[in-house]
């Protein structure tokens, strides 16, 4: 069980773990999947958003911290929980095995004060409907690098996509990368129940941006009761922390 930052709501969290017997050197398993929970009232599974992950020796698990609110799970009317039991599942959309680059990449993660190079940037938008897609936040500095947020409509036209981008990644030393922990959030201006997602990624010359294609549905974003968009105003926040670096040898 986890609690989200900014409120006391408890959630059920789920993770998919690659068995050690399936972990092979120089092999990456690219997987797209959804977690499911069976809703007995409708006789079908409720699906969580798609998760994409590259399973490998250095990263053998992935999942969601907020599958379902514990209060919702326990509600008798929801029919998720019956006789103190519930049914979770997983739906694989794509699984592919690829050979990793044979170049040795050594990851150095700082073990103390790992969030010294960190910062928070708030992007206040006063006229959302006047923006063109994609749109970009003002630039900001964290850890000696320049960053900005990119926001656009997803390819399916039903979601907002959100990405953290590094400006001028060619300023990084050749064959190196920075391991960054990033939290992007859309603020709930009414009740403080923000839409927030967190992940880690290596930023390099070849990979200067990272984020979520389906950060939030446009239906939820434009729903005034959610508090994300009020009279054309919304607030986006990026928490960025440099937690390590890597070098190819």
Automatic annotation (TrEMBL):
InterPro entries in UniProt: MATH/TRAF_dom, TRAF-like
TM ranges: none
Per the UniProt entry, what species is this protein from, by scientific name?
Digitaria exilis
Listed PANTHER family: MATH DOMAIN CONTAINING PROTEIN, TRAF-LIKE FAMILY PROTEIN
MATH domain location is 1-92, 118-240
Name used for this protein in its record: MATH domain-containing protein
